[in-house]
Amino acid sequence: MDPNLSPNLYSKKMHNSYEDEEERMHFLRIVSAFKYYRSHSLQRVKKTESYFMSLPVHHQKVLSKYREHLQEIKRCIENNDHIIKLIIKDVTHIFENVSPTTAQTESTPNPRPVLADQEKVQATIKQLVRDWSEEGAQERLTCYQPIIDEIIQQFPPEFCIPSEVQVLVPGAGLGRLAYEIARRGYTCQGNEFSLFMLFASHFVLNKCRGTNSYQVHPWVHQFMNNLKPEHQTHAVLFPDVNPSDLPENAQFSMAAGDFLEVYRQDNHWDCVATCFFIDCANNVVQFIETIYKILKPGGVWINLGPLLYHFSDIPMEDSIEPSYEAVREVIEGLGFRMEKEDTHVKTRYAQNTNSMLQYEYNSVYFVCRKPNVTSSADSNNHNTNGSELNGSQEQEN
Hints:
- With 397 residues, the protein is α/β, with parallel strands linked by helices.
- The protein is 42% helix and 15% strand.
């Protein structure tokens, strides 16, 4: 198999001209955010420099090393911008509905979206570390490895043909979990909605060859809680593995789009693996319902993550935020049978291990199964609103 991921794997089907224009403008906004990274980031440093120059001379003198550090920060921003330019270089060819001639940077959005989008660009740089660097290995060990181990236990290669086991990874981010599942012989598809993630995953999976061939400075925007100046400017190499090093017959693909819109085919997947995903929903019940519907009878859902509820505090966004206890009741109420559960799995997400401030989640890990045999009433409950999956939205590699 050609390990390269075809751009068609990132294609999306448009339903009408309004949606086409809306998605085109969204695409342009994200491209603009990446292009604006350098100037936005340097403005932040310039603000500090201006204040520094207003300090009494003797204060400036005792902070001479700090002034040198600000120069180093600017150099790191320039290096990050080099990677960003590589990420968006061929991005106009990812989606069939966006032509290179139309994908020009739109007029500067209003200040609030710019700030939010810049934070997402910065988060994307950190995600490169979590998914594709040696320094992210510990996070992957605690977050991804339990899921991988469970898949192997549920579908042992000595008792099945792994390539016949279809695994879906919604919220795949930069694709490392899905990649690792496919590397073990299973047919795996990652699904991602965020263009920030899709742009970066396309670069890593299609453009990066060899190991540790690029570097980023993921913590350069962390101006607080630094024990040493070099902790802020620390460089991280990526990728730690060659993304093209997949087994010859590996079945690995990425599908772009909203999970709820792309996956509508009932009884299709043997396993759905979610990591830091279910709290990305406005309505978590919709996610659970969809996972139940798309799993084959007897299929398993493996989940690990917290309940951060991404839309909870975003203006103009609707959100419900049920506790895990309430979520668990929904899971079982919809028909799943809980087989494994651990409510105190220590996990981190894109953490700077040198920072004076550390965030850690008590994540929930569970494995549940869709019963092999369901009652007619249960079947009726879970097969409403089902429709055939559009082939242009989900394409296997």
